[in-house]
Every structure is written in structure tokens, then in C-alpha cells.
Design a protein that fits this description.
Elements: H1 5-15, E1 22-25, E2 38-43, E3 61-67, E4 70-75, H2 81-84, H3 91-99, E5 104-113, E6 123-130, H4 156-168, E7 173-180, H5 189-198, E8 202-204, H6 208-216, E9 220-230, H7 241-264
Parallel strand pairs: 1-4, 1-5, 5-9, 6-7, 7-8
Antiparallel strand pairs: 2-3, 3-4, 5-8, 6-9
Length: 266
């Protein structure tokens, strides 16, 4: 019996037995997108073993239903490493996603831009990542499955479909490399200069551990950043979590158009 059997039973009691095709993880300020799904919302607090996202700007519900004709599971908030010091905080939700039948996960996040031509309100499809934190959600995994190859972790076919959806919707979508910084404090200007020298185009406090876990579990993965600010030292902009939440809707409208088109074209 699966270690998540009780959890799966609880979810199916709410949402039915039909398999899920795709999972969507929503970042800071993007939780309202869960409201676009025709289905049921299950509070994380009702899901035994689920992490309770404790970050304002998140909507801590698992929403299961249809969006543009595709059965999806939407995580209205994520747990972050910086909340409890556990890089594998999202392991159980992703295990559940697999057990519900999904083969694909798309993660979204709010990020700071390191590129002058990618301002606040832009969206960026991830091509790769830099694990600037040095942490890993597979530390402690006892099996040889822990040695996960990360070539094309962000699957090119999925990314190309997202880019095609953006083009069809006349939405500019940048491409770039995302650096994971542990948080919760924001980066210093010196750290941003270092990350930029290493080749990053955007920086944030999530997504990378989830993608590592997704690849470990055999899920296809893609990710999109919404740019909520220029990174420290890149502008005179005052960086704060409140600013992140306030700016997220600028990119969220673009993101929703792209995701809806992507699902219609699946």
C-alpha cells in the first residue's frame, strides 16, 4: 500500500477517481489562477501529511478539475525551504500528483530579473537552473534513484509548446536560466552580480527543488517565472514581499493566457 494511501483516498472523496493529466504549482501572487479551474478546492489543512504553505500571497488549496478541457491538479501555494529548512517540502504533493495519474508538472514562480530587457511584468520560460543555494531535496534518499540526471530537466518539447502558445496569444515570453536562492532574505547586490556572472537571467526562492523531485519521480517538467522586480542593484526599485505580491498580477494575466492556450493545444 502506498504511504500516501490515506491522502489519495481523501482527495478522491472530494474530487472523484478520474485521473489527472497535469499538475500546476502556483507561485507568490499567482494563486488566483486556481479560481479558473472548474472543480473542487481542498484546503491543505484537510490533507494529512500535506505541507501547509505559510507565505502570504499563496492560496493553500489543492484544486482538482478541468481547465480548457484538461483535468489538472493545481497547487494554489507551495511550501518553501526557508519556512522550515527542508528542501524536500514538496515531495509529498508531487508524489500525490504522480499517484493521481499526472505525467507532467508546470511550476510557476515570482522572480527578480537580472536582465535590463526583461522588466517587471515580463514572463520567462526556464531553460535551465543554477542551484545557487547548494541544497538538494534528495539528500537522505536511500536508493540509487537519487542520482538523477538533470540534462534537459526543463523538457525542451514542453518549453517549445509553451513558447508556441505565447506566440499564438501574442504574448512576449523570454527564455532564460533561473537561479535558486534559499531566502527568506532577498539577495544582496554582490550576490546578484555573482549570480549574473554565473549566467543566470532571473533569481527566486523556489522551483528548483520541485523540478529535481519531479525528475526523480519521472514527471516531465517545465517552469515559468513572472518577473515582479529587478534584482538588487539592477534598479532603484524597493524590493519587498509586498512589492512582489503587488507586481505579480502584471505577469499573471500573460501567464494565464499562455497556460490556457497551452492546454487547449495539448
Amino acid at each position: 500500500m502506498s504511504k500516501n494511501a490515506k491522502l489519495i483516498e481523501t482527495i478522491r472523496e472530494h474530487a472523484g477517481d478520474a485521473p489527472v493529466k497535469l499538475g500546476l504549482i502556483l507561485g507568490s501572487g499567482l494563486g488566483h489562477l486556481a479560481g479558473a479551474v472548474e472543480g473542487v478546492a481542498i484546503p491543505y489543512s484537510e490533507l494529512p501529511g500535506f505541507p501547509h504553505a505559510g507565505v502570504s500571497g499563496h492560496n493553500p488549496n489543492l484544486v482538482i478539475g478541468t481547465l480548457e478541457g484538461v483535468r489538472v491538479a493545481v497547487f494554489g501555494g507551495r511550501a518553501h525551504y526557508y519556512e522550515r529548512g527542508k528542501p524536500d517540502e514538496m515531495r509529498v504533493p508531487l508524489e500525490v500528483l504522480c499517484e493521481l495519474g499526472a505525467d507532467t508538472v508546470i511550476a510557476t514562480n515570482a522572480a527578480g530579473s537580472l536582465q535590463a530587457d526583461m522588466p517587471t511584468g515580463s514572463i520567462m520560460a526556464l531553460t535551465d537552473h543554477i542551484n545557487f543555494s547548494g541544497l538538494n531535496p534528495l539528500i537522505g534518499e536511500p536508493t540509487d534513484k537519487r542520482f538523477v540526471p538533470m540534462m534537459d530537466a526543463y523538457e525542451p518539447e514542453l518549453r517549445n509548446k509553451l513558447l508556441a502558445a505565447a506566440e499564438a496569444e501574442e504574448v512576449e515570453m523570454h527564455k532564460g536560466i533561473y537561479a535558486w536562492y534559499s531566502g527568506p532574505s532577498f539577495e544582496t547586490p554582490a550576490e546578484i552580480r555573482a549570480i549574473k556572472t554565473l549566467g543566470a537571467d532571473a533569481v527566486g526562492m523556489s522551483t528548483v527543488p520541485e523540478v529535481i523531485l519531479a525528475r526523480f519521480m519521472g514527471l516531465r517538467a517545465a517552469a515559468i517565472s513572472t518577473i515582479t522586480n529587478m534584482a538588487a542593484g539592477m534598479s532603484d526599485e524597493a524590493i519587498s514581499h509586498e512589492h512582489t505580491k503587488a507586481m505579480a498580477p502584471l505577469g499573471a494575466a500573460k501567464l494565464e493566457k499562455v497556460l490556457r492556450r497551452f492546454l487547449r493545444d495539448l
